[in-house]
Every structure is written in C-alpha cells, then in structure tokens.
Amino acid sequence: MTETTRAQDPAVRVREEILAYYAQGEEDGRLRQGSDRLEFWRTQDVLRRLLPTAPARVLDVGGGSGIHAEWLARDGYEVQLVDPVPLHVEQAGRLPGVDARTGDARALPAEDALYDAVLLLGPLYHLPERADRVRALTEACRVVRPGGLVVAATINRFAGLHDLLKHELYFIAPHRARVDRETEEGRHSPDGGLFTTAYFAQPHEAPEEFTDAALTVEGQYGLEGAAWLMGGIEDWLDDPDRREAVLAATRRIESEPTLLGTSGHLLTAGRRRT
Description:
alpha/beta, nine-stranded mixed beta sheet, 12 helices
C-alpha cells in the first residue's frame, strides 16, 4: 500500500470530535503549567534514559504542537512529527529542528525501518478500538529499524475517577455516572466538555497490544505516581528543591507493579524484533 493510499484510507479517519477538541489550541499550553508539568517532566525524564544517544532519528507520532519534539531537537535528535490536527502541524513546524507533517498513527507516511525510535505519546488513548491501537503499534514497528525503540503512552483506567475526586466533581451526578461507566468499560465520552473521546486502559493492556504488533516489551513506567493527586502539587513544582524531590520519588516507584495504575499516565516501552 502506498503512502498516498494510506492517507486516503477512510478506515483511519480521526473522529470529528477529537479534531474539534484539539483545534481549540489549548494543548500547546497544557503541559507547560500547573500540575500537568509533572507529566511533562517525568516523560522527559524517562525518555532521556530510554532513547538512543543523539543524533538519532525520532518519529513523534501524534506529537501535538511539538511540546516534546522541541526539547528532543534541542537535545540533538533529528525529529519528525506526525499529527492529524492541522493547527498542531503548523505550530510544530515553526520549531527549530522539527519537521512536521499531517498524518495518522494507523497509516504513517514513512518508509520501512527509517527511524531509530518512534514515540506515540497521544494516539493510543484516542483509539477506543483495540484493533486500531494494535494497528498503530504495528505501523510504529514497521517504520522503526530492527532493534529500534517504540514508546507509547496510555491513560490509566481510573485516572478519570481520581481526577474528579481531586477536583470535587465526583459529587455532581452526571460526572459521577459518566466516570463510573468509564471504570467498567474504559471508554470516555466527551459529555461534559472536560475531554474528548478516549480510551482509558488497564496497565496490562498495552504490553499485550505491543506483543500483537510484534514488539518485545522491555518496561513500563508510571509517570505521576500518586503525587499528581496531592493538594500541594502545584506549589511543590514551583519550588526547585521540592520539585526535584517529587521527581525523585516518582522515579523510585515508576515501575513498581502494584502502583502502575495509580499514575494518570503510563509509558510502555518495547523494541522491534531483530
């Protein structure tokens, strides 16, 4: 199948409500402020330990406005970003050292074995169907070199429940009913305007999907631990000493099996088989 055919394949069209949500332009600032900075700094922390030494070719799939592509390019990596949202591609394309283009995780516009590492830090949790998530991981496996690294992010199954409790929204009947359904099914609907269509996964699901995509799993990393749920987290992140302590604490428990589901986000890392 040619790249042109992939781009026109109706089976990989992104849902309209997802495109509309991100077209609002709020994603660019999300990880730069408040408690969400913990997700950003911990993602950066884990990736800097896992990625091959720069220079290396990195494909940032669903990379948004380039929040991670920016520091990757600054670290010396050759970064290409693919995202289905035109606004994101425009924003990322302005960043020094970042080549951005429109595309879908399930049909990547790239040649086989072209990259040393492929990142999917957003696509999997916007693909409610398991077959689509495996397809996206299979595409990542295709375009990464043999032995190359693939890292994918998922939102944990109970993140929505924890988040509503933290912000005291769980006591509002419609929010409570929605999040109770999420904990059973994993499917988040855009009702209420808090987020868009998404899938919240159990920690064991990503490794199984990696395996189905012919990727060998090497590890899982909980990003926020329990710190993201604590009332003083924003003030702690503003204080350099306390921030370093929080990062060290979450790093200490990042791969503890009994705590993987506590984090809001989970990274799963694997490699294309040689």
